[in-house]
Predict the structure.
Amino acid sequence: MKLPFIPKDAPFTGDQKSWLSGFLAGMQSAKAIAGSQTSVAGASTAPLLNILYGTQTGNAEALAMDAAVAARAQGFEAVVQGLDDVTIDAFSAMKRVIVTIATYGEGEMPDNAGLFWESIYSADMPRLADMQFGVLALGDTSYDEFCQAGKLLDTRLEQLGATRLIDRLDCDVDYEDIAAEWINKTIPLANSGHATLPVVEVAPQVAKSIWNRKNPYPAKVSVNRLLSGPSSGKEIRHYELDLADSGLTYETGDALNVMPVNDSVLVKNLTERLAVSPELVLKDQKKSIGELLTYQYEISTPSRNLIAAVEAQAKHEKFSHVLKTGDKEALADFLWGKDTLDLLNLNSEIVFPIDEFIALLKPLQHRAYSISSSPSKHVGSVHLTVASVRWRGEDRDHLGVCSTFLADRVTVNGTAGIFVSPNKAFRIPTDDDAPMIMVGPGTGVAPFRAFLEERQMRGAKGKNWLFFGDQTRDADFIYEQQLLEMQAVGVLSQLDLAFSRDQKDKIYVQNKMHERAVELYQWLEKGAYFYVCGDATRMAKDVDQALRDIVAVQGKLSADKATDYVNNLKREKRYLRDVY
Ligand SMILES: Cc1cc2nc3c(=O)[nH]c(=O)nc-3n(C[C@H](O)[C@H](O)[C@H](O)COP(=O)(O)OP(=O)(O)OC[C@H]3O[C@@H](n4cnc5c(N)ncnc54)[C@H](O)[C@@H]3O)c2cc1C
Ligand SMILES: NC(=O)c1ccc[n+]([C@@H]2O[C@H](COP(=O)([O-])OP(=O)(O)OC[C@H]3O[C@@H](n4cnc5c(N)ncnc54)[C@H](OP(=O)(O)O)[C@@H]3O)[C@@H](O)[C@H]2O)c1
Ligand SMILES: Cc1cc2nc3c(=O)[nH]c(=O)nc-3n(C[C@H](O)[C@H](O)[C@H](O)COP(=O)(O)O)c2cc1C
């Protein structure tokens, strides 16, 4: 993304100011700020440190909370807010700012930072000459646009004349320790020009779960049931995991992370290809090669370092061409469906000493799943709805690591390591009377099963409308019985179904939204919340467009005004997405 150029000494004109005030009129500053900050700057004389976060699944928010605790302990008044909860007027007045921000989609801002980014990206954004800032970027080096949201924000703040307290930190998946170190280094720097601050004891505001990425809870998998029918082209499964006396709690809308174990057949094939015994224990290692490849490293999706190292030996014209021309799409096409073993097999002469090979791998990561149960209905249990990823390529069967770990490798009553990622931005309305519209094709229905169960348990009177779909009604109408029962008892007021392959022309959920446009718009006008869950790359984008088109036609609005309407839904936290 190209940033608009702003000369360092660009004047801040009255015109720009009035344009901005108009543009931001809908941002409801007082409400937004009061709604999400954890501490309000009052009469305190302590220097104010604003800590802002952009998050999708909570990591950046948790770091912002950690930073606030550390800042308060060092005598600051720390105010924590989501980026979209900040008005540009309030932001422009900030003097010391720390931003923690994740990257989503393909190098995009997380959902709770999109409107903020649009505003500060505008060429009319006022200069921020009095601001000192630090950006902590979260990301994952497996993505092309590593930490892109943090990079864009960091550059933009500099362009606007703000001064860095410290260089940006770009974190890969193993971020906790380096992020904590950066926070501890950055906070004292925010105090330049002030007297030494008194150190105060501050207890963390929210007790953290003892179960986390580094210490997952070994939950018993008590149910593994196939949801899709025998003729389905997919395999979608329902899992139930026991929380027993773990103390692990969750809310509807949260995600459950599952720590997978690799497939033993792939480990065996890899060690054979690398001509190494799985029993071998490398110097300075406690675990054998077999154990490392089974539990500790990602051996399915090749890392960037491995891709580069293999290319250097592969003597494979097409591979070298797509890698060296930097054509990301062609490279993605070439790599599609190839795992680490397929890459090694590109040429039988590719050789790696085992320690070098292991150094090229990334740590094995948990996978996130939208929780599909209500904790009020299923006390002590958490449910998942997972599509098993399996494909055939290079004459071998390939298995998605975590979905098939759950499907094939955890026996019923066996255990899986889990921890919860709270998703405070994806909750049912606090107002039980508010209507909800939910769009969740395929496994995207998962959190909506949970939402409906929760509303049923609460006896909420608000109307609920679900758009669901998948390939065929016969084989892919997952949770059919439960959804129809909910419809029969009135919990589900409207159910619109889009089975894409039951007729010649595809019918998708957004087609159903168009068919019901009049009523959908009426619901929105009556304060309905609009939720989307499932595939980010295609479905969520098309549903977003359908929503804009419906608003424009039904509200008789220009495209710009329809965008304002949808942006307002986002500001009011009535347009919420959990897309992946
Ligand atoms: C917040 C969040 C919530 C989620 N919720 C859910 C949920 O409720 N249910 C759910 O099922 N998933 C959900 N997911 C997705 C889930 O986290 C995993 O990404 C998914 O299960 C695949 O993981 P895996 O380890 O099985 O596959 P991996 O080992 O990670 O393999 C996936 C990779 O395999 C390759 N691949 C996949 N299919 C093919 C093919 N046909 N041909 C060739 N190559 C292929 C692609 O490169 C793909 O990236 C969610 C993700 C997020 C971020
Ligand atoms: N990025 C991709 O290319 C891709 C592709 C498939 C799955 N996935 C991922 O696979 C996982 C599981 O997928 P899933 O089985 O839950 O569901 P899914 O593959 O998203 O399919 C659910 C339904 O959505 C339909 N669909 C396809 N394109 C659509 C679009 N543009 N707009 C609206 N609906 C559309 C499908 O129809 P048809 O299949 O008949 O077209 C199907 O009926 C998710 O993580 C998803 O993101 C990604
Ligand atoms: C669907 C999806 C897309 C992502 N896209 C990117 C990306 O383009 N670049 C990147 O560096 N990281 C990407 N990430 C990784 C996240 O930024 C990383 O997991 C981060 O820790 C999430 O923080 P959060 O919990 O605050 O949202 C992506 C993660 C997911 C699940």
Remarks:
- The CA atoms of residues 440 and 452 lie 13 Å apart.
